[in-house]
Amino acid sequence: MADVVLSNVDKSYGALEVIGGLNLSIEDGSFTVFVGPSGCGKSTLLRMIAGLEPISGGEVQIGGRRVNEAEPIERGVAMVFQNYALYPHMSVEQNIGFSLRMAGLNRSQIATRVAAAAASLQLEPLMKRKPAELSGGQRQRVAIGRAIVRNPEVFLFDEPLSNLDAELRVSMRVEIAKLHRQLGSTMIYVTHDQTEAMTLADKIVVMRAGKIEQEGTPEALYEDPVNMFVAGFIGSPR
Ligand code: ADP
Ligand code: MG
């Protein structure tokens, strides 16, 4: 059970309040997409869920356990960033397996899990290549492979496709939807792309200045936006 529950979450950087009293429940196995203008706190929120950023007030729970930034990364949360930072000197295979090596798994355990991750992303033909020998889309697939290999209960994606060209974005979006069906893990996804939001999400959360403006299914927000701000992010009917 890995419901993600945010209760009264506050975040400030010094005097700057970035998130204010935010409440949200994300169901186990669901796909939630965050949209909102640049600077409204989406990345900060993901980092707090990942335990990478101290919370100023309130709490975040995953599967009933309170997220504590001091805890190690083995909480079953993996994050994929916009700027995939692959290790340039390592092959694709080594990049995907790196976290497992750090976690102390043996060679055959690592090989099995890396092979499974590579298969689900069609990375097998690229396993011996270095990042410099890959296209942008291939690199992003490797970055997703590094997340998958850890079998996380919760995937956090921060604008993972925004550096890719339009055509590649479409195929990667289909890839991510397929992964969600295959893995059944909870996925939390930030994007600027309306099509990604509308097609991937079970629930869309529209954020504005550190607060939730509206949340609901893509259909509900499309049919019944509470205001022009939400309509602008979702695409108003007609
Ligand atoms: P978004 O991802 O929605 O664009 P962010 O979460 O990155 O927004 O940022 C929200 C606000 O917090 C912005 O005003 C940003 O400048 C500020 N901010 C983000 N990270 C830091 C930081 N480490 N120190 C100070 N301010 C920050
Ligand atoms: Mg951001």
TrEMBL record:
Domain ABC transporter: 4-234
Annotated membrane topology: Peripheral membrane protein
Gene Ontology terms for molecular function: ABC-type maltose transporter activity; ATP binding; ATP hydrolysis activity
Gene Ontology cellular component list: ATP-binding cassette (ABC) transporter complex, substrate-binding subunit-containing; maltose transport complex
Membrane recorded as keyword: yes
Keywords: ATP-binding, Cell inner membrane, Cell membrane, Membrane, Nucleotide-binding, Transport
Cellular localization per UniProt: Cell inner membrane
Family to which this protein belongs: Belongs to the ABC transporter superfamily.
Protein's name in the database: Sn-glycerol-3-phosphate ABC transporter ATP-binding protein UgpC
Higher taxonomy: Bacteria, Pseudomonadati, Pseudomonadota, Alphaproteobacteria, Hyphomicrobiales
Full-length numbering of the shown residues: 1 to 238 of 354
